[in-house]
Design brief:
Elements lengths: L3 H10 L10 H12 L6 E7 L5 H6 L3 E8 L2 H10 L5 E5 L10 E7 L7 H14 E12 L10 H9 L4 E8 L3 E8 L1
Parallel strand pairs: 1-2, 1-4, 2-3, 4-5
Antiparallel strand pairs: 5-7, 6-7
The protein binds S-adenosylmethionine.
Length: about 180
Amino acid sequence: MTEPAYFERMYADSDDPWHLAGNPYEERKYALTVASLPRERYRRAFEPGCSIGLLTALLAPRCDELIATDPVPEPLARARARVPATHVSFAQSALPEWPPGELDLVVLSEVLYFLSSDVRAQVLARVVGSLDADGQVVLVDWRHPFAEAACTGDEAHDEFRASPALVRLVEHVEHDFRLEVFGRA
Ligand SMILES: C[S@@+](CC[C@H](N)C(=O)[O-])C[C@H]1O[C@@H](n2cnc3c(N)ncnc32)[C@H](O)[C@@H]1O
């Protein structure tokens, strides 16, 4: 699992270490992500690893309540400023920490491969345990190996695909990223 200190250092060196803002690749991927949501509206959504809130801003109009978290305070402050809506809450928190109560949308965008296999298993169990009957989980991940990643995006997706509790609703695969939406089986 990539240690919190790694992300703290990344954000100490740059407001946007992955160059997410104004990046055509990221903007297209975010647009595909929200376009892939099977439902128009969600009651209660959770987006861990929200960083500076770019995807959060696109999810917010689709949700009655949206909980966005990141372990690092600096990007969270930027996300809060970017998405000032009262139905969106921001909290400093790291997976596998999970909000109590039922959810009908979980968005795991470019975060799973930073987690150890044990924590990924806990996250999968949390997803299955918290999604209500018509709940959905979205996974979006860079597909190629890199030094800080505990696994590839494809490997993380395979773990969700193997869960008998989930059924795949959407699959979009490109050379660089994989986007999938799962509902309850
Ligand atoms: C590559 S960025 C992805 C940001 C955003 N989700 C997106 O798709 O644009 C990864 C983010 O995950 C956060 N992160 C790292 N470890 C985490 C953990 N255990 N739980 C939740 N977020 C984590 C990092 O601080 C960073 O902001």
